[in-house]
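Progress report, Aim 2. The chain analyzed during this reporting quarter is listed below.
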Amino acid sequence: MMRWRVVIELARGDGTVHASEVAAGSDDSAGAVVKPLGLTLADPKGLLAALQRHFVQAKVADYCRERRCCPRCQKQRPMNDVRTRRLNPLLGTVEVRVP
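Predicted structure tokens for the chain:
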């Protein structure tokens, strides 16, 4: 039996690296007469949607962090409220938490 996983590493401008597991799976065709090779047709679509979700959430978090910085004193401005927003990019809806 073979197991696989896809991990994405996002490196920010300040040098921090954040790694997340995007997808994981295994070859569950142990008893099948003919074992399929590679991915099924549904696998790439789910993988791309998960990649997009991670990229969009990281990009929105970076943008919000930059916008909270005061242009005069470079300190973080206070945050009053955080809400969930839904964005509709190409591969499905992505929920992000933004101030």
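Residues 3-24+40-98 form one domain. Residues 64 and 98 are 7 Å apart (CA to CA). These observations will guide the mutagenesis work planned for the next reporting period.
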